[in-house]
Amino acid sequence: MSCRHEIDTPDVDTQLMELIASTSPDGTVDHYILPRETDYAAIPQDPRNPLTQTKVDLGQMLFHETGLATDAFHTVGIGTYSCASCHVADRGFRPGRAQGIADGGIGFGEFGEDRQLNGGYAENQIDAQGIRPLSVLNTAFVSNTLWNGQFGAGGLNVDFEEQWRNNPETAVNALGYEAMESQNIEGVTLHRMDIDKELAEELGYKELFDLSFPEFDEEERYSKLTLALALSAYLRALTTSEADFQHYLRGDVEAMTPDEKAGATLFFAKAGCVRCHNGPNLGGDSFHAVGAKDLWQHPDALFTSVDDKKNLGRGSFTEREEDMRAFRVPQLYNQFGNEHFLHGSSKSSVREVVEYFNEGVSENDMVSQDQLSPFFTPLNLSEEEIDQITVFIEKALYDHELDRYLPVALPSGNCFPNADVFSQWDLGCR
Ligand code: HEC
Ligand code: HEC
User: Fold this and answer.
1) Dist. CA 364–CA 347, nearest whole Å
2) Which of 40, 130, 166, 168 sits a CA distance of 20 to 30 A from 150?
C-alpha cells in the first residue's frame, strides 16, 4: 500500500481527470461534482417544493423526531421510532443492520446494529421491509426512488403510467410531485407517522411550519403533506460534497492517495464499474440484475419470504419480463463502516462486493442466466487491483463530516433516532 506522502507525477492526475471527463455525458468532470449542502440553487429540486434553509432545518429535525410516531401498531410502540431508525447518519444513512426495523423494534446499540424485535409484536406487525434500506445520501440525484424506481411520474416512469395508476402504492405519482416528494407522502403513512396542528405545537415545530409553508392555508399547514415536503427538502440537501474524491474533482490533486487514484482509474476504465455507476452520486438511473441474494435468504431477516414482491426488483413495478430481478444501481458514497451490502445484505464488506463483481457469477438460484446483465461478467482483476478499487470506494468516497446533517437536540427534547427504553439507554438519553 502506498501512503499519502508519495507524490505522483502530474501526468497521473491529468490522465485520470481526462478519463473521468470522457465518461461523463457533458465531457467534463463537472457531472460528478456534487453541490455543497447549502448551495440550494445547484441542488435538483421539485418546483412545487423549493428548498429554503428553514424548511431543510425543519426536515432535519422531523427526520429524527420520535414524537411523530403516533400510529404504532401497539401502544407500546408510540413515540419510539423515526425515519432515522432505518437511515442512521453514522452508517451512511443505512440501518447499521441487515434490515431496518422502526415500529416493533427495541434497542439501538451504537449505530443501529443491536435493534431487535420487540417481544410484544408478532413478526407481521412490525414496520420492516423485505429489502435492505437504501442510503438517502445524494438522493436529489435519483430520478425515480426505491430499488425498483416505482416513485415519480417522470424520468424512467413516463412509459409506465398505467402501471402506477393501477397500483394503490404508487397512485401518489398522480399528484404531480417529483419522485422524492411522492415517495415521502406515502412514506409517512407506511412508517406510521402523523402530525397535526396540536402535535406540531406540542413538539415545538409550529413556528417552523409557519415559516416553511406560508403558501399553505393554516388548516392545511400542519399535515402529512407538509411533513413529507419538509422531509424531502432535508433529504435533497444531503450531499457528500466533502468526500476526498469531491475535493479532488474540484482541483485538489493531493486529496487522493496514489492507490485511490489507481482504484479510480480502474473504476472508470478497466473494471467497467462506470458502465452502471455513472450518475453524479456514482449510482445510476438504470436497473440491472447482478444475481445478488434476496433479503429473505438472510438469517436475520423478518417478515419476508421467497414470495415477497420486493425480490422481483424493477419487474415488480413494470411487470415486464426483461425487468425481473433487476435493481436500481445504488449510490456509492459512505459505504465504509457498513457491514451489509447489496439489496439482500448478502455481502459484509466493500471488498466482498468488488470480488463478487470481479467473479461475475450469480449467487442467487432464483435468477436465471438470461436475466443477468450483459455487463455482469468476469473482470480478471488482480488482488492488488481489487484492493485499489476497494480503497477508492471506502476512503475517497467517504465524507467524514456527516454530523453536519444531525440535529444537536430536538425542540421536543425527545430521544432520537429511537426512544424505546432500551434505545434510551444505548443512546445516553437516560
Ligand atoms: C422500517 C425502516 C424504514 C423507515 C422507518 C424509513 N425507511 Fe426509508 N427506506 C427503507 C427501505 C427498506 C428502503 C428501500 C425500499 C425499497 O426500495 O423497496 C427505503 C428507501 C428510502 C428512500 C429512497 C432512496 C432512493 O435512493 O431511492 C427514501 C427517500 C427514504 N427511504 C426516505 C425515508 C423517510 C423520509 C422516512 C421517514 C418518513 C423513512 N425513509 C423511513 C426503510 C425505512
Ligand atoms: C451491471 C451493472 C453494474 C456494474 C458493471 C457494477 N455495478 Fe455495482 N451495483 C449494481 C447494482 C444493480 C447494484 C445493486 C445490486 C443488488 O443489490 O441487487 C450494485 C451494488 C454495488 C455496491 C453495493 C452498494 C450497496 O448499497 O449495497 C457496490 C459497493 C458496488 N456496486 C460497487 C461496484 C464496483 C466497484 C463495480 C466495478 C468493479 C461495480 N459495482 C460494477 C450495478 C453494477
Assistant:
1) 13
2) 40
Ligand 2 contact via 292 beta carbon (within 6 Å): yes
In order of 10, 20, 64, 260, 389, the CA distances from 13 in angstroms are 6, 10, 41, 12, 17
How far does the centroid of ligand 1 lie from the alpha carbon of residue 187, in Å?
A: 7
- Distance, CA 340 to ligand 1 centroid (Å)? 16
The closest-lying atom of ligand 2 relative to the alpha carbon of residue 288 is: 12
Residue 342 in grid coordinates: 447489496
Work out which ligand 1 atom sits closest to the CA atom of 148. 17
Q: Which ligand number lies closest to the CA of residue 349? A: 2
| CB 58 less than 6 A from any atom of ligand 1 | no
- The terminus-to-terminus CA distance of the chain in angstroms comes to 44
Along the 430 residues of the chain, how does pLDDT read in single tens digits? 445 555 656 799 999 999 999 999 999 999 999 999 999 999 999 999 999 999 999 999 999 999 999 999 999 999 999 999 999 999 999 999 999 999 999 999 999 999 999 999 999 999 999 999 999 999 999 999 999 999 999 999 999 999 999 999 999 999 999 999 999 999 999 999 999 999 999 999 999 999 999 999 999 999 999 999 999 999 999 999 999 999 999 999 999 999 999 999 999 999 999 999 999 999 999 999 999 999 999 999 999 999 999 999 999 999 999 999 999 999 999 999 999 999 999 999 999 999 999 999 999 999 999 999 999 999 999 999 999 999 999 999 999 999 999 999 999 999 999 999 999 999 999 9
In whole angstroms, give the CA distance from residue 184 to residue 54.
19
